[in-house]
Write a structure and sequence with these properties.
Elements: E1 5-6, H1 16-22, H2 33-50, E2 55-59, H3 63-74, E3 80-85, H4 88-99, E4 103-108, H5 117-126, E5 132-136, E6 138-139, E7 144-145, H6 148-157, E8 161-165, E9 184-188, E10 200-204, H7 206-213, H8 232-235, H9 244-259, H10 263-280, E11 295-299, H11 306-317, E12 319-320, E13 332-336, H12 344-360, H13 369-379
Parallel strand pairs: 1-12, 3-4, 3-5, 5-8, 8-9
Antiparallel strand pairs: 2-10, 6-7, 9-10, 11-13
Helix pairs in contact: 1-9, 2-9, 3-4, 5-6, 10-13, 11-12, 12-13
Bound molecules: pyridoxal-5'-phosphate.
Pyridoxal-5'-phosphate binds next to helix 3.
Amino acid sequence: MEQPLIMTPGPTFICEEVRNAMARPITNPDLDMAFLEYYHDTCTAFQKLFHTNNDILILGGEGILGLEAACASLIEPGDRVLCIDNGIFGHYFADFARMYGADVSYFSCDYRQAVPIPELEAFLNENKGFKLATLVHCETPSGITNPVDRICPLLKKHGIISIVDAVSAIGGERALVDDWAMDIVITGSQKCLSASPGLTIMSVSADAWHKILNRAVPIAGFYCSLAIWKDWYQKRSFPYTQPISDIYGLRTAVDRLLADRQALERHAAIAAAVRKSLLQAGLELYALDGYANTVTAVQEPEGVAFADLFDAMLNRHDVMIAGSINILKGKVFRIGHMGENCRIDRVFLALKALDAVLRDLGVNLTCQIHDEFITRANRSGEVSSEPVAYTQADGK
Ligand SMILES: *Cc1c(COP(=O)(O)O)cnc(C)c1O
């Protein structure tokens, strides 16, 4: 089966090296101490990616497991939790908190803009008593990156533990977990890491561990408990059998990312070139500021139904793009340019197809999107990287 070019904001393209790593023979992860060391080294690699000395945990479940596990492990019934809400993922984070008995308050702001710091600061000065706050680094449905470098230190100043959904950010946006006092930071294998879906990677600060290990009420559940992971390496024992093949793939992916010294610069440069080329052609972005470097959300042009756009992109040009979800469903379409998809050649192909399809659907474009993109992308020196040839065969 020929695979289309998958340009969605996750899952992303998985390179052959990562797929081959997943095909390696397995071992018994509980008895093979060489595997235990390999796993520990994998956690160390993530400490580098997160810029942290905090513990790294890898959970066998998609990013959502990380969000729920953080809530399950930290929240005791009646705890006050602040939900920082400027987007769909941010808003629905509160549902996980409530499932574990949290008394939730929202700090809600404009969904088309990054979280405003002065307003948040004023809110925190007036509203006290929060144990935790949930927030999202990159709001994938709307293509907005929040200033976690300002938000997390502010929360820390108020004695509030932060739980950060950085699933579509880590690897594509700068994240200095220790410098920015981020307590729990969660990412997933299938976004900027470009590994197979199915793993959560998270960092846990000393303050977060203290709360997790000093509860009045025990954690309800086992698989969602982070406490079962405390000191696994010192004890030389995993809490349950680890998904070895996924770990092999993940390790290869994180090593590739760490070796790629210009990954963040390339994400910023390609994202900027995508935005400018779309705007130049007369399209409108959903975000008004805080533009994400990993995904761009574009307002659906007048008279164009997303289903027609999606079908034409896929069936005529072999490119898969995404719509959005919830309140943005049918209003925006999204192009992911994260991880292995953050390459000039892949983005160029996607934009060339988009240009042709929008013209076919009767949209009046004021320039060629892909030409504009390539000119701008080539102009920014940082983007240059070893070329990654996309071939259909590679996606088989
Ligand atoms: C992808 C993503 C998740 C995980 O959600 P899925 O829909 O299961 O992929 C969580 N948070 C954010 C911000 C994401 O982008």
